[in-house]
Specification:
Layout (H helix, E strand, L loop, with lengths): L8 H7 L14 E14 L5 E13 L3 E7 L11 E4 L4 E2 L1 E7 L4 E10 L4 E11 L6 E8 L6 E8 L19 E10 L3 E4 L3 E6 L6 E6 L2 E4 L6 E4 L2 E4 L10 E6 L8 H18 L7 E7 L6 E2 L4 E5 H4 L8 H16 L8 E2 L6 H18 L5 H16 L15 H6 L3 H34 L3 E2 L1 H14 L9 H9 L5 E8 L4 E8 L7 H5 L4 E3 L1 E3 L12 E3 L6 E4 L10 E3 L8 E4 L1 H12 L9 H16 L5 H7 L9 H15 L4 H20 L4 H7 L3 H16 L3 H11 L2 H5 L3 H14 L2 H13 L3 H11 L5 H13 L3 H16 L4 H10 L1 H7 L2 H13 L7 H7 L4 H23 L1 H9 L3
Parallel strand pairs: 1-11, 18-19, 19-21, 22-23, 24-31
Antiparallel strand pairs: 1-2, 2-8, 3-7, 4-5, 4-8, 6-7, 9-10, 10-16, 11-14, 11-15, 12-16, 13-14, 17-18, 20-21, 24-25, 25-29, 26-28, 27-30
Bound molecules: 2-acetamido-2-deoxy-beta-D-glucopyranose (8 copies) and zinc ion.
The site of one 2-acetamido-2-deoxy-beta-D-glucopyranose has 5 residues, from loops.
């Protein structure tokens, strides 16, 4: 996602240079074996939050060296106290120490040379303040709701490179070592680490302080080590059905205990499900789940001590959306899938981050389907991931999911939604390509073979190949690692062009990178190994996803006789279930045949739902780039009134909304009229909002109705607005709307309603301390069409001295930008306050704001002035180029394609 700078990664593929010297890596001369870590934590009020400790590291010298280089950052180290002793007890002198701030190295020069194979014990004392920014060893706090007393607590967030701010260590994922953690703290607190406490004893001098030693931890990457000192309440889970009867406890502040039920119960079920799926026992004896008031991410998979942001852990059905619950369940399943992917089998280096995030995301989807079959999650999640992927990657800035990363900053940036989603789609591709049996055989072999080791992507592909060979699942000329490298070592995706010979029953195929912009010479030559599976209309079977042929790389035009000859009046379709991530263009006659089937009431369901969504997605993208006409694309939408499933609706409405956001004036009115007509039959299926809850418990239906309601109100269907206005009149009434629809009704009534309603909601926002409520209200207030009202709210948020209040600014702004009413003024507000935002918000948040604000803006833009205005604001400057690039793409479309689009729409209104 942080594209641009890294575009050159595709060159790596071309030249085959995969190992680049990385000056930020530790010299590969010392191998840590064991850490003995002792840490005393002080939580004595806001100005006394600190820790001190010492680490003893047993290591082996791999190559003679005259220095010991490891990671340390922001730690105070008294180097006169460091000791280094050899196996035989002899001490070696440290003659000099130095800090390399840029590389975050702490270097100890020794007298003479440490000889190869010798073992040493290095002892380093250190101390530091507990971090304020939720990284490393950090503090957090909560207020007791009765006594209003503030309680402080401490916990770790080491991933990816913050372990070094908590203790000196060899902080690279492949340097696994065993750990023994001993925590010191006041008796009033509880101490947790990856393993259970073995025994406690009184502190030698501090009264009421204890030292508690934890059992040793299996060889682990440093980023997975975790500990915490806190006084939270604990909630036990029912016993888990795992081989070692893993014991689960969850920890949280007392006031949210009642709302922890879902995650407390769900977590052990996911662990045992995954254990059975992977056929490899979870090796630890306990798991603690820690719900932290603040957390840098949503959750972290530390071995045996999973941490969550509290708001991602607790759930209240009467207060929060069903989709929020599903997202929490997904997070839980994701973290537990990591216990195998990442924890048991580690990464060799962060370039292959997708190798733990991809499988964890994908197996979480499978877990949801297995444990919550009524939710129908995986199909919806995969459908959304596909839509997002195809959209993001056609902008000319896609990066490879496996790419070189160097310093800490680029390691952190690697954790982008892009890597998760494409990583997951890549795992899914392997699954559907190889079939259930081979895929799981390979996964189980991989876990067994590399348990407690570390891997690169070629190990995964190698194990897949071996399983495929064993079962004859791939044709012998196919080298899986070559195939998969073409998907993971370059960004973007191909368009496969299919031209049929209707007489012979053959097809002519070629591929090219699909982009919305012109391609460079290199880009025109890029290619993929593309699995080809054709479905033929007669007896169409979308379950058979294993490849019949391959489109090879380097590219060449290919003529292919199909396995079974299609009749000239039946369609053929590539890529059943969109098993691989490419687009397809057919000759027009084949498109027409497909559209006929969609339009015939008995047969539209013959086409798999993921393909129904993808066909529209592809055709709209082909029309955008003038490779097909908008007339053809829109004629496919004629079948929608009969479409019962959420996914195709969701995909097409998102796409059309994106088009609509670019339009102004008359074009915009025509578009709105079209959308009203398109959405009406979908809306007509929905019950009245107040009766919907009583009838509807089904998660897929709730999602479908939410889509229908939000789009109907967005395009101002009378009935939707009427319902909203009549409900919105009285605060009490809107509070009684079922939670899954309340935000939509509330937004519409704010948008079309009276002044007082805004004010009373604003009062409630200011008066409340419940995070989920405040978020919902902030979003609804952002629907206002009265900018002076909105501005007052935005200013209030930015001026607040409270850390959390400011975060709602982004929520409000995103909501306002989605509507055209006050988008311009809102955009101005953002740019005028860019400096404050740059300090306060993450690079990712700023990127998304900037892409919308600049990307969709039509008005004359003084680029020079804008650059001037944003000068020195690193996060804005970094993403400005990408935003201007998208703006160019959109302006081109407006100039060249919007007229055709509108002309095609006009036929339907
Ligand atoms: C420390 O030793 C390693 C391996 O011998 C060497 O590559 C590195 O340059 C040394 N570092 C310093 C600062 O001397
Ligand atoms: C660690 O960082 C904090 C905040 O950036 C700073 O105040 C403190 O002096 C630093 N400590 C050390 C030892 O570098
Ligand atoms: C967090 O604070 C630590 C020092 O306490 C600092 O080293 C680190 O760079 C900060 N990280 C971020 C993301 O601000
Ligand atoms: C707790 O209360 C104190 C004092 O009233 C306040 O300053 C602080 O922001 C509150 N903290 C939280 C996490 O609500
Ligand atoms: C520990 O708990 C006791 C009893 O609840 C209380 O009186 C005391 O102030 C607490 N001490 C600390 C340091 O939290
Ligand atoms: C959920 O929220 C409602 C309304 O705030 C509250 O009355 C209820 O007690 C909460 N449920 C739980 C389990 O805490
Ligand atoms: C395809 O698989 C689905 C789900 O496993 C099953 O319900 C369906 O009957 C299968 N269809 C065919 C044609 O085999
Ligand atoms: C704010 O909340 C308090 C306590 O919940 C309530 O008594 C008061 O009426 C509320 N004020 C407004 C303006 O809603
Ligand atoms: Zn993850």
């Amino acid at each position: 996602m942080q594209a641009f700078l890294y575009y050159f990664t595709s060159l790596l593929l071309a030249t085959g240079v995969l190992c680049i010297y990385n000056p930020y890596r530790l010299p590969n001369v010392i191998r840590p074996k064991h850490y003995d870590l002792r840490i005393l934590t002080h939580l004595n009020g806001r100005d006394q939050l600190h820790f001190e400790g010492r680490v003893k590291i047993d290591f082996q010298v791999q190559q003679p060296t005259n220095n010991i280089t490891l990671h340390a950052k922001n730690l105070t180290i008294d180097d006169s106290q460091i000791t280094l002793s050899a196996h035989n007890g002899l001490k070696t002198n440290i003659i000099k120490t130095e800090l390399n701030k840029e590389k975050e190295f702490y270097i100890m020069h020794v007298a003479g040379e440490l000889p190869e194979s010798e073992q040493y014990e290095l002892m380093i004392p250190f101390k530091a303040q507990l971090s304020e920014n939720d990284t490393g060893y950090y503090w957090s706090s909560y207020n007791d709701s009765f006594t209003e007393k503030t309680h402080y607590l401490a916990a770790t967030q080491f991933s990816p490179t913050f372990g070094r701010t908590a203790f000196p260590c060899f902080d690279e994922p492949h340097l696994r070592a065993t750990f023994r953690v001993t925590l010191g703290y006041h008796r009033n607190y509880t101490g947790l680490s990856n393993t259970p406490v073995r025994n406690c004893e009184a502190h030698e001098t501090l009264e009421n302080y204890i030292w508690c030693e934890h059992e040793p931890l299996l060889p682990t990457s440093t980023y997975l080590v975790a500990y915490s000192v806190h006084n939270l309440s604990s909630v036990p889970s029912p016993p888990s059905d795992t081989i070692h009867n893993v014991r689960f406890r969850s920890w949280m502040q007392p006031k949210v205990v009642g709302e922890s039920e879902f995650c407390v119960n769900f977590a052990p079920k996911t662990l045992s499900y995954l254990e059975q799926l992977f056929e490899y026992p979870f090796p630890l004896s306990k798991v603690d789940q820690l719900a932290m008031p603040t957390h840098k991410f949503s959750a972290m998979e530390n071995w045996g001590l999973t941490t969550f942001k509290q708001s991602h852990f607790v759930h209240n059905d009467t207060e929060e959306l069903q989709q929020a619950k599903e997202s929490k369940a997904q997070t839980v399943a994701h973290e537990y899938a990591h216990q195998w992917f990442g924890n048991l089998v580690a990464l060799n280096w962060w370039n292959d981050l997708w190798l733990k995030e991809g499988p964890s995301t994908y197996f979480a989807y499978l877990t949801l389907d297995a444990l919550m079959p009524d939710w129908g999650s995986s199909q919806r999640l995969i459908g959304n991931d596909l839509a997002k992927f195809f959209q993001d990657d056609m902008i000319n800035n896609s990066i490879a999911i496996s790419r070189q990363v160097q310093d800490s900053k680029s390691v952190l940036e690697q954790f982008s939604p892009y890597v998760y989603k494409k990583g997951s789609l890549t795992m899914r591709m392997l699954h559907l390509l190889l079939g259930d049996e081979v895929f799981f055989l390979a996964i189980r072999n991989y876990l067994k073979r590399h348990a407690y080791g570390s891997v690169t992507q070629s190990e995964l592909f190698g194990d897949m190949q071996q399983a495929a060979d064993l079962k004859d699942a791939l044709s012998p000329d196919i080298q899986l690692s070559t195939v998969m490298d073409s998907w993971t070592l370059q960004g973007g995706y191909p368009l496969v062009h299919v031209v049929r010979d209707y007489e012979r029953g053959s097809v002519q195929l070629n591929q090219s990178l699909f982009l919305l912009t012109n391609k460079s010479k290199e880009q025109s030559e890029s290619c993929w190994w593309i699995p080809l599976t054709f479905v033929i209309q007669q007896n169409a079977n979308f379950n058979e996803t294993q490849p019949q042929f391959w489109l090879k790389c380097p590219r060449a035009q290919q003529t292919q006789q199909l396995l079974k000859k299609p009749k000239s009046d039946e369609w053929i379709m590539l890529n059943p279930q969109v098993n691989s991530i490419y687009r397809v263009n057919y000759d027009e006659r084949n498109w027409q045949l497909i559209i006929q089937t969609l339009n015939s009431s008995e047969h539209s369901n013959d086409i798999h739902v993921l393909n129904r969504a993808q066909l529209m997605d592809d055709l709209m993208a082909l029309a955008w780039t003038n490779q097909q006409s908008y007339d053809l694309a829109l004629s496919m939408l004629e079948y929608l009134p009969r479409e019962q499933e959420l996914l195709p609706w969701n995909t097409i409405l998102n796409l059309l909304n994106n088009h609509g956001e670019l339009l102004r004036g008359d074009q915009s009115s025509i578009f709105r009229a079209f959308m009203q007509k398109l959405v009406s039959p979908l809306y007509a299926r929905c019950p009245k909002v107040n009766s919907v809850a009583a009838r509807t418990k089904s998660s897929p239906l709730i999602a479908l109705y939410r889509l229908a309601y939000s789009q109907a109100c967005r395009y101002q269907l009378d009935d939707c607005i009427d319902q909203a206005l009549s409900l919105g009149q009285f605060t009490e009434q809107i509070e009684e709307v079922p939670i899954n629809f309340r935000d939509i009704m509330s937004c519409a009534s704010i948008e079309h309603g009276i002044q007082e309603q805004f004010q009373s909601m604003l009062q409630r926002f200011k008066n409340s301390t419940i995070e989920s409520r405040k978020t919902a209200w902030a979003k609804e207030l952002g629907c206002s069409r009265n900018f002076s009202q909105l501005q007052e709210f935005l200013d209030y948020l930015l001026q607040s001295t409270d850390k959390t209040t400011k975060t709602y600014y982004i929520v409000v702004v995103n909501s306002a930008l989605q509507r055209q009413n006050v988008a311009l003024q809102t955009a101005d507000h953002v740019l005028q306050h860019a400096k404050i935002l740059n300090d306060k918000f993450s690079s990712r948040e700023i990127k998304s704001l900037l892409l919308t604000i600049i990307g969709n803006s039509h008005s004359q833009l003084d680029e020079l002035k804008l650059r001037q205005q944003l000068k020195g604001l690193d996060k804005f400057e970094k993403h400005l180029g990408a935003a201007l690039h998208i703006r160019n793409i959109n302006l081109n479309w407006l100039a060249q394609r919007s007229v055709n689009f509108i002309a095609a729409l006009s036929k339907y209104i």
